Amino acid sequence: MTRDGSRGTASSAEPERLLEVTDLQLRLNSPRGPVYAVDGLTLTLDRGVTLGLVGESGSGKSMTCKAIMGLISDRRGTITGSVRYDGTDLTRLPLERRKELWGTELAMVNQDAGTALNPVLSVGCQLTEGLRWHLKLSKREARDRAIELLTHVGIPEPKRRLGQYPHELSGGMRQRVNIAIALSCGPSLLLADEPTTALDVTVQAQILDLLADLQDEHRMTMILVSHDLGVVAGRTDFTAVMYGGRIVEIAPTKDLFAAPRMPYTRALLASMPRLTAPSHTRLRATPGAPPDLTKRVPGCRFAPRCAFARDRCRSEEPPLVDETGSGHLFSCWYPDSGTPEETGATLATSGQTLKEDA
Amino acid sequence: MAGTGKAHLRRSDSVVLSVEDLVVEYRLKGSGDRVHAVSGISLDVLAGETLGLVGESGCGKSTTARAVLGLPRPTSGSVRFDDVEVTTLSEREMRRFRPKAQMVFQDPIASLNPRRTVEDVVAEPSRIVASGTRAERREKVRTVLREVGLDPDVMGSRRARQLSGGQCQRLSIARALVLDPDVLICDEPVSALDVSVQAQVLNLLGDLSQKRRLSMLFISHDLAVVKNVSDRVIVMYLGKICETARPDPLYARPAHPYTAGLLGAIPVPDPGIDPRGRRTVQGEPPSPINPPSGCRFRTRCPFAQKICADEEPEIREIDDNHYVACHFPLTHAAAA
């Protein structure tokens, strides 16, 4: 992301634009009327970069991935805006052309490793499908490649696994299989949608390490979606924070965590219980609940919950701008409102003790 | 990990809940294999104390919580509330005891009937127990709703399906509190909530435990959440206790290799820390159908020796109020 020269470690040579999303809107059909799941999202991504996409449930993270992939059928919803991948606008491609790109150019790893796999097909069958379809490998070649892939994602006894079914594998192993499938045809862009949310922390760490290793190796571009700010902190070049279907702040990850500008980002960081904070540290909760995406209200979407909202916030929507030219974009009329203590930016030191240590 | 043993139990008059040698096993249909869900857990909770039970899925933390309430009754072991043994009570006697210990479940939406009104949901427990007049019960419902931050005049007649996840969890807490229990058992109460809402509920639980001098058994897989709410923490692995201590020393100086690995695996919201350089635990937990001999963590433990397979470590005190079940506990320097 970012339009200037400041980018992460991943690109050493001249950066090459891979993905350019402009004013993406996704309107889902629902019994309650249209749901504005993604509402005017703009984003650019250079080759080799990892972008973390964070936000609470319903903020539009997963739907952004699905819209980029082109997985929303006309019956389910309407997409407007453009998704330019390597120069081609994916939103204008017919389904047949998009199918050719799935797996070979764009691939996705889903949150629920169990349901992402077909329960009645063997691991081998699901893993070789793409290899045979896209890469036109013979049965034998595909099988050999599948064994290589399973070995690569750290699955012991890969030969035996080919004949096993998803229910015979643990959650972590299933997610490894999903990753192997996603990477089987050498995609350039991997959309990892909460790939570790259903897993235990020790397994999560292993899967995230695996993704990082594979990404380095294949010089893949990755969008890592998570509701957990901790997951993206150490593993991304850029972080985008979503709220109510829009990106409200995006910056190099280090800058975002060091100096969040938008009150929502600050509130999100302040409401997390920390391992480093003493027990019974009072958390800074944000009152209220995320917005109802069936209703479109004027102004900043976070205004109803923002402690610093003023009249302008409720009437005029703040644009996502790079005020300082540093590649740190945020959408807020009154950034850095309040003192650090009030916004909770320094919560680790400002904790009140709730009760005496027993 | 293992370990069995009761060295960590306290002999205090203010023990409200005491569990000894709790075992929960069940047979799988078909194969008849025996699942060792909980294998000899002992714990105690003092009045006004919050005990956190933390561990990964399948470690038996939820099973422990449910067995305490007799849902279902444990295979063996003792559960005492205020010195009354409840595992041997008849169904009728159990009914009389139930108001003393109430539960808050993980999924706030699924644990409420979507068509009942907020007031109905909270009124039901007292209707079943039939305490006081109808007017008294209604007043009590309104007081409890206010206590959890739901305005009875605004919310009272809404239906559960009209509430957000956070509001549903407040409602579940109100339903659990309306009978004024001594012990509140919270099974992953904030896991389904977003962080901003999670913070509201955690703060609420902290306030309630202090105001009501409520004892809580707080179950979660999230170590940061458990640290925040607990006065004491038990780390579980595969049906056994690994380590128990007060949260601050436990997190600063974990003595059990599993605790240290678990802490190392947690993603920290600090981009300055390279997650790949941290100590974590490799592999996945073994099956509870056929748990490893000796210390149950030995198959994933980087320090395991022969004795770990042969002998199950006993829980012992290694520091003031800090207990661990390990043959080779980490020294503070190594854990840092």
From TrEMBL, chain A:
It is a peripheral membrane protein. It is found in: Cell membrane. Transmembrane segments: none annotated. One of its GO terms (molecular function) is ATP hydrolysis activity. PROSITE patterns: ABC_TRANSPORTER_1, ABC_TRANSPORTER_2. The keyword Phosphoprotein does not apply. Residues 346-358 have a biased composition (Polar residues). Residues 19-269 form the ABC transporter domain. The keyword ATP-binding applies. Residues 339-358 are annotated as: Disordered. One of its GO terms (biological process) is peptide transport. Keywords: ATP-binding, Cell membrane, Membrane, Nucleotide-binding, Transport. GO terms for cellular component: plasma membrane. Belongs to the ABC transporter superfamily. This is ATP-binding cassette domain-containing protein.
TrEMBL record, chain B:
Belongs to the ABC transporter superfamily. This is ATP-binding cassette domain-containing protein. It holds the Pfam family oligo_HPY. Keywords: ATP-binding, Nucleotide-binding, Transport. CDD domains: ABC_NikE_OppD_transporters. PANTHER family: D,D-DIPEPTIDE TRANSPORT ATP-BINDING PROTEIN DDPF-RELATED, TRANSPORT ATP-BINDING PROTEIN. It comes from the Bacteria. The lineage of its organism: Bacteria, Bacillati, Actinomycetota, Actinomycetes, Streptosporangiales. GO terms for molecular function: ATP binding; ATP hydrolysis activity. GO terms for biological process: peptide transport; transmembrane transport. Residues 17-263 form the ABC transporter domain. NCBIfam families: oligo_HPY.
